[in-house]
Design a protein that fits this description.
Elements (H helix, E strand, L loop, with lengths): L2 H8 L6 H53 L17 E3 L3 H15 L10 E3 L5
Parallel strand pairs: 1-2
Amino acid sequence: MNPVIQLAVERGSHLTIGEMMMNAGIVILVVFGVLFLMYILISLSGKIIQGITKLGAKEEPAKAAPAAAAPAAPQAPEEVFSSGSLKLKNCDEKTAAMIMAIVADDSGIPLEELVFKSIKLVEKD
């Protein structure tokens, strides 16, 4: 006999096995019902957030279009990013650029995030 059923019988419970199974079925239905409601709420909130972000993305080009239609105004040049100076010692620029690209590729760090202080050519004896 199942230990749960045996415990219920020993304590004097007057529930039959059928009633116990029906109670267990109701509990399972309630749990799955709550899980289904949570699924619906999460899906709806995701769709609402997607709609808001798409709406925001559509408004930005609309604001930029009138500025583009205006007569050509002088635009500020793009900022040039520089992380300092690089000292080359016995090395030409082409070789230094190749070394920098190889280091970025091997390390997996983007080249714009690396800072090189100096590159020195070391000759083998």
